[in-house]
Amino acid sequence: MTPAARLQAAIEMLDWIIAAARDNGASADNIAKKFFKERRYAGSGDRRAIRELVYSAIRRWGDRPESGRQAMLGLVDEQPELREFFSGAHYGPAVISADEPVASGPQVPSWLTDRFAGPIDENERKALFDRAPLHIRINGQRAADGDVEAAWPEAVGLALPHAYELPAGTQLEDKALFREGTVEIQDLGSQAIAMAGAAAKPALTLDLCAGAGGKTLALAAMLPAESKLIAADTDRNRLSRIEPRKRRASARNIETILLGPGKEMESLDHLKGRCDLVLVDAPCSGTGTWRRNPELRWRMTPKRLEHTTELQQRLFALGSALVKPGGRLIYAVCSLLDAEGGDQTDRFLESHTGWREISIDLPIGRPYRKGLLLSPHHDGTDGFYFTCLEKL
């Protein structure tokens, strides 16, 4: 493909992504897979160049552009070499008109700027849009740190036990440690939340919003084999991904429960007041994961944020009813917005008596509003807020 044709392809892919963001459709990564599947003539170099153009535009614009062409035109001033490809030649985009709308504005949507937990200075803003590192966690019950270092000599140890960073693009699938479930890809922030949950050695743990089970598996690797873990979620497809993962990891102490949306307690009533630990890794805006999924900025609106925080409140309260006296509740979000983090903890404690904050002793993170705050610049992790509360 010519450079002009690559640019036109990037514009077309951006049109798909913009529409999906507006209509709550597929993720940008899944759209890219479908896009290239329909264009098998695009070679590996073409695909790489097109992706680079697409994600440059996504990372640059905080507010969702009206079209892919508008998004790419906005990059012309910063990447003037693009201008020559807007000629209509060589299967490229049409010539630029003088009155065409052009994407503009900051990287962080203006309506969110004042809602972050702490100020977003230039270093933190830059880190929010850097490429995410590749973090792995090894199951210390099945392998030693030396095994990882032998398999990947370039691995760099991180602040938490059994946590490593690998160079971007490292292939894991060809290593027995990964195929056998001894190594999992997991951001250091997620590992920190699991470690906080495992600190009191809970005998019965419920992961209320388990998704594909990343934190459930991490907890299983940190807890005695006789511990019992329950992974629950309302999304059948995501929950089904736990089964092959737990078989790979030989985690026989995990069971799953599919919940009905809005009717979760019908399936969890038998756990009321019985759990030593309940983890509520609540659905959120994903502001802490922008470096992985920058198009999330284009999906979030004030109305959607309001609906999300209402769901978080409900799940926070639901999880608390399942904790036994002396047990613990961890509320976590991969968000850096106060509305989803510290505000939710304050609101819960104001409306629920008989709970106390537990200090979280970890080598990363900053104490923040009865919890801990992790961020890309400060900790090298995705952005997280989480709190640990004990039921009196």
Describe the structure.
- This protein is α/β, with parallel strands linked by helices.
- It folds into three domains: about 5-105; about 135-185, Alpha-Beta Plaits (2-Layer Sandwich), CATH 3.30.70; about 200-390, Vaccinia Virus protein VP39 (Rossmann fold, 3-Layer(aba) Sandwich).
- It has 16 helices and 13 strands.
- The chain has helices at about 5-25, 30-35, 45-60, 70-75, 120-130, 145-150, 175-180, 190-200, 215-220, 235-240, 240-250, 265-270, 295-300, 300-320, 340-350, 375-380; strands spanning about 135-140, 155, 165, 185, 205, 230-235, 255-260, 275-280, 325-335, 355, 365, 370-375, 385-390.
CATH fold field value of the largest domain: Rossmann fold
- The helix tally amounts to 16
Structural class: alpha/beta
Span between N and C termini? 65 Å
Chain-averaged pLDDT = 96
CATH architecture of the largest domain: 3-Layer(aba) Sandwich
Which CATH class of the largest domain applies here?
A: Alpha Beta
Work out the helicity level. Answer: 25-40%
Number of strands: 13
Question: What sequence of helices (H) and strands (E) makes up the elements?
Answer: HHHHHEHEEHEHEHEHHEHEHHEHEEEHE
Total number of distinct structural domains: 3
